[in-house]
């Protein structure tokens, strides 16, 4: 019985790969350009880093990934920069682009493998299984998938014990113009829900700018930030001085949670553990850090 779930993961990977992969992908690519922080992290978790020829700027973890050749930001790629690394496979998140650049790469004879980005456990498992199949590391993929599934199971068990679901507002950016916050159908919204919280601005979808009056009206009990966002604004003291923040329950009680950007938003190998940590901090104000 212990082999049942890994076998299902492996079968899902075969179906996933057959449906999406171009026929020209080599059986075992030796030079992969990885575009997407979660994808790069999975490659390292599967001990496939020797196959990496380059990564994009969202590939921040592990630290060693930052030393690899960079191909730019995932949404504004350059075909020339990627092709200069002589890859035999370009592995990209569904968020990567522009599409014309990906088509240029395909036209140059280099396979492009696109992995879907859904904000759920199954999406993470699909990415793991697909990449493990590409690397020829199915057993390592099974092991990693089992670890990830165990993390999400622990999260579900903890969440089932919650009697309250605090409202949380996630700030994507705060350093230029009106703050940018995340509504429905975003990675932040999914993480808040996984952790047992309620998105304080879940009445609209996507990332949108917000004014001080709307921040006050949303009345979040807690505010969630990434380290990158906090560093951009200049620290917590300056964040609390932003218009509207001090007039929210979160601002009045200084309840701001700061987390690692990639771990929080990428839906990769650490997502279950990160959601578990967030859940614990949402339920217990004593766990809310005052600094990143």
UniProtKB/TrEMBL annotation:
It comes from the Bacteria. PANTHER family: HEMIN-BINDING PERIPLASMIC PROTEIN HMUT (PTHR30535:SF4), VITAMIN B12-BINDING PROTEIN (PTHR30535). Residues 1-26 form the signal peptide. Keywords: Signal. Residues 31-287 form the Fe/B12 periplasmic-binding domain. It comes from Methylomonas rosea. PROSITE patterns: FE_B12_PBP (PS50983). It holds the Pfam family Peripla_BP_2. This is Hemin ABC transporter substrate-binding protein. Coiled coil: none annotated.
């Amino acid at each position: 019985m212990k082999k049942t779930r890994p076998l299902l993961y492996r079968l899902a990977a075969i179906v996933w790969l057959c449906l999406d992969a171009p026929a020209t992908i080599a059986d075992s690519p030796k030079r992969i350009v990885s575009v997407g922080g979660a994808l790069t992290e999975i490659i390292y978790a599967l001990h496939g880093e020797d196959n990496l020829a380059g990564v994009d700027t969202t590939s921040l973890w592990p630290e060693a990934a930052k030393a690899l050749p960079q191909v730019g930001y995932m949404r504004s790629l350059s075909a020339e920069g990627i092709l200069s690394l002589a890859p035999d496979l370009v592995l990209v998140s569904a968020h990567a682009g522009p599409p014309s650049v990906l088509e240029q790469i395909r036209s140059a004879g280099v396979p492009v493998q696109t992995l879907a980005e859904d904000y759920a456990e199954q999406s993470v498992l699909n990415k793991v299984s697909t990449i493990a199949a590409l690397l020829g590391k199915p057993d390592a993929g099974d092991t990693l998938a089992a670890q990830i599934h165990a993390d999400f199971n622990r999260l579900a068990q903890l969440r089932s014990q919650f009697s309250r679901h605090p409202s949380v507002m996630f700030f994507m950016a705060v350093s230029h113009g009106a703050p940018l916050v995340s509504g429905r159908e975003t990675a932040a919204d999914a993480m808040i829900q996984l952790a047992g919280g309620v998105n304080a601005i879940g009445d609209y979808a996507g990332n949108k700018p917000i004014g001080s009056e709307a921040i006050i009206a949303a009345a979040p009990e807690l505010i969630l930030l990434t380290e990158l966002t906090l560093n951009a604004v200049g620290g917590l003291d300056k964040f609390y001085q932003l218009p509207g923040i001090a007039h929210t329950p979160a601002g009045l009680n200084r309840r701001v949670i700061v987390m690692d950007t990639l771990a929080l938003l990428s839906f990769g190998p650490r997502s279950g553990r990160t959601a578990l940590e967030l859940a614990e901090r949402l339920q217990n104000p004593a766990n809310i850090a005052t600094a990143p």
